[in-house]
Amino acid sequence: MTNVGIIVGSLREGSFTKKIAQSVASFLPSDYNVSIIDINLDLYNEDLDQPGKVPASWENFRAQMNDVDAVIFATPEYNRSIPGGLKNAIDVGSRPMGSSVWDMKPALVLSVSPGAIGGFGANMALRQSLVFLNMPVVQQPEAYIGGVTNILDADGEVTEQRELSYFKSIADAFVDLINKNNK
């Protein structure tokens, strides 16, 4: 059983980004256990990363991430970068030094936007952090999902065969990366 955590940078209840991540994840093999990881965390402050002071939200997040074998990062683009909540989750998971929950976990980066460039800036900004965190990341196909409001139907589902085929190719590349890293 492979455990995959989905981390969604959008905190909106009706998040397009979350819907796209779930659609891509639906193409993972049936023996993959997929769960969305909550990133509503206390802001990272090194002063709190001491015994007896660590917020419960950090402890829960770190415990969840320690049980994950691979990660799908799904992010909208805010000001040509990633949302603050996503960056905070990355920081919480990377601390304390030497105890990163991210190390060597295969990752997939999906960026989602109503705009035409599909969150390119957020995708690249997130990849920069993942390099430092020592996470192997799917390189191709790149997953910039632009025009998201045009590919979701009234129920928030992706039904266009062209998009679904693309999502399957993304999921297949992620599975290949996971398999290569499990050898």
Core attributes:
NAD(P)H-dep_reductase; 183 residues; oxidoreductase activity; Rossmann fold; alpha/beta; globular; 15% strand
Task: Please count the helical segments.
Answer: 6
CATH topology: Rossmann fold
The amount of helix comes to: 25-40%
The assigned structural class equals alpha/beta
Question: Beta-sheet strand percentage?
Answer: 15-25%
At CATH's second level, what is the architecture? 3-Layer(aba) Sandwich
From the structure provided, what is the oligomeric state, counting identical versus distinct chains?
single chain
Number of strands: 5
What is the count of distinct domains? 1
Describe the model:
This protein is an alpha/beta fold and about 180 residues long. It has one domain (about 1-180): Flavodoxin domain (Rossmann fold). The protein is about 40% helix and about 15% strand. The chain has helices at about 15-25, 55-65, 85-95, 120-130, 150, 160-180, and strands spanning about 1-10, 30-35, 70-75, 105-110, 145. It is globular, with a radius of gyration of 16 Å. The protein starts with a strand and ends with a helix.
